[in-house]
Amino acid sequence: MADNQNNPSGWSTAPKREPKRTLQDYMLIVRERAWWAALIALVAAGLLAAYLWSQPRLYQSTTTLLFETAPERVVDIEEVVDNSLRGKEDMILQVHLEQITSRQFMQRVMDSLSEDEKQLLTQPYADEEGHVPSLSSVIRQSSAISHASGAPIFRITFRHRSAEGAALLANRYAHKYIDYLDERSDQGNQRAIGFLQEQADELRSKIEESEMKLQQYRQEHNLVSLEENQNIVLERMKELNGAVTKARVAKLAAAAKVSEVENALDNDNNLLEIPAISEGSAVDATATKLAQAKAERETLATKYLERHPRMIENQKQIDGLEKMLQTQIKSRVTDLRNQLAEAQEREDKLRTELDAAEQDALKRDKQAIQYNVLRRQIESDQRLFDQLMARLNETNVSSQLSNVDARVVDEAQPAGAPFTPDRNKVIASSAMLFLLILIGIPLAMEAFDNKLKTEWDVGSFLQKSFLGEIPMVKGNNPEKRAKIVLDNENPRAREYFRSIYSQIMLMSEASPPRISVITSTLPGEGKTFVASNLASCFAKHHARTLLIDCDLRRPQINRFFDLKNDAGLIPWMESGEMPTDAEKLVDDPLLQVRQVSPYLHVLRSGGVTQEASELFQSQKFHNLLLRLRDQYDQIIIDTPPVGGFSDALFLASQADETLFVAKHNHVNRRKVKYLLERIDHTPGRVLGVIFNQTKTSRTQQYGFYGFYDEKTYRNYYGDNKSSQSSSLAARERLQPETGRA
């Protein structure tokens, strides 16, 4: 909705697209300069082919050397020098590569060559005077040794002027490297055997010395059987510890009984109540007899008096028993005290024996520590000695076996044909150089070419829109070319103008009535030709159009439309006041706006002047444009080239948009960019760029819109296009103007 309001013409605004070069564009760039680029490429390719073919013939031979990653073994014995590729294969292969390409190994190979072999290798390189290079330089410049990626394979390649010499060097290098590995392995084994034997002898002497020290220690401390003595001491300590415990228990029991008796004596208690006194002793029996005697006295007392003989006898018995009981009690107390003393003495004695046993045990432990240190040292040395002897035996066996894991898979054979110069390679190299120059030079020239000629230049470098192109029109004079659209001449060119008209309608943001300025960089780029035919396009679409010739230094529009230049801008601007009526302004005899076709009017310059800038900056000219805008739908102003004069800048500031005409492949794009930036600083807007005078061969290049060529147009319209164009022109001439479209 907003787009329609900004553009009342009804055309939708075309989206801007960033031009991009395609493969076809680059192919056309190459085709543009193909002839002379092909000539240079042909000469260069021929020289390269001649140079390559003149090189001395070289023969190539290759020997393949394989390193086994998991070699078969007769016995499972680890080698002293490991040449296999187990583990870090890439690192080991790199080590092998450094060794086989070293100067030291090259010297080993040269030493193995006989005099005849040396002459075979150096004689083909003799110069015209008979001088031959050194053998080392021949080998160094002809070798190419490498290992295959991802496989433990070495390819030993030599290129030599002699087929036999190339094969000889390749095979000799491979076999000598295997011999080198075998020799290095033997040397390693011998060094290892000597080292192991020396270490074993030293360790044997050390073991013998340690055993002598152990034996002497046992004799000094009478340690016939240290383990048995320690066991006896431990058993004795266990027994004494048990006896001490029992003695302590007995002492405590005796102490308890004595303490009870002493307590009873202190408190005058009856000692017979104490179990330790009465139970299980003579006291108990005496106490029983006393109790019986007293019981008998009570019985006798019932029958007899105190002086009765039986009573007297009973009393004597009681007195005797009481005296005996006291004596027995005292004896029992003495026994208990003696038992306590004996228990204490026994405990002390046992503790003394236990302490002596503990001291003996500690002494035995100290002796055992030193003894065990000597014994463990002997055992450790003995184990190491056993391992050394086992490794020594394995090394002796391994030294008898070949542990070189490299072998020749494919020996080199003398080549039947030279490696170089190879006809196919010479042809391929020459062809590649030919294509490189054929493509590279045009692209390089295109990169350094600063001329404006492609849509990419317009869109990417100038940052402007590309409106279209107009091919070079031949065979017509300037007057006829200016009226191609008006007179329906040259259908092919007319379609290009219609395409540009469509682009303008799509891209223009100005609403009719609209003023458009057409300018260029330099004279001769065809801006007046474009302005005339573009004005005719607008008129053909029934837009009331005015074409104004503002090139006051070199006017041409009057000549293109066969008009005299006796009236127009200059006489009118130099005259008096402006009429107030717009229609009278158009009919002003000094201005004389001429109608050249339905809807198309022309305002001439009216002469030539060098003061054009002053006229265009005047208020009278500004008011004139405002009055003319009210009378026309489209005003197209033809201006002088902006690269030479500033008139176009003043006119662009009063117009709605500017159309920039550039002669194809003629003007410097940096200068055009500078001029467009100057126009952008004015209120006017640069709508886009139009290419003029594009060659027929360029019509479809670089993304142009040139899809109409003469053949296509003729095939589409057939033979009736002339009659159709004539009838259309006739209808347009007869159709009267009805006002603004």
> What is the radius of gyration?
66 Å
The termini sit apart by 22 Å
Give the tally of β-strands: 12
The CATH superfamily of the domain at 455-562 and 597-722 is P-loop containing nucleotide triphosphate hydrolases
Estimate the helix proportion, in percent: 55-70%
Instruction: Report the sheet with the most strands, covering strand number, pairing sense and barrel closure.
Output: 8 strands, mixed
Report the CATH topology name of the domain at 455-562 and 597-722: Rossmann fold
Provide the structure class.
alpha/beta
Low-confidence stretches: 1-16, 697-710, 716-741
CATH architecture verdict of the domain at 455-562 and 597-722 = 3-Layer(aba) Sandwich
* pLDDT averaged residue by residue: 78
Treating each run of at least 4 consecutive H or I residues as one helix, how many helices? 26
What is the highest CATH level, the class of the domain at 455-562 and 597-722? Alpha Beta
> What is the spatial order of strands in the main beta sheet?
5-12-11-6-10-7-9-8
Shape: elongated
Approximate strand percentage: 5-15%
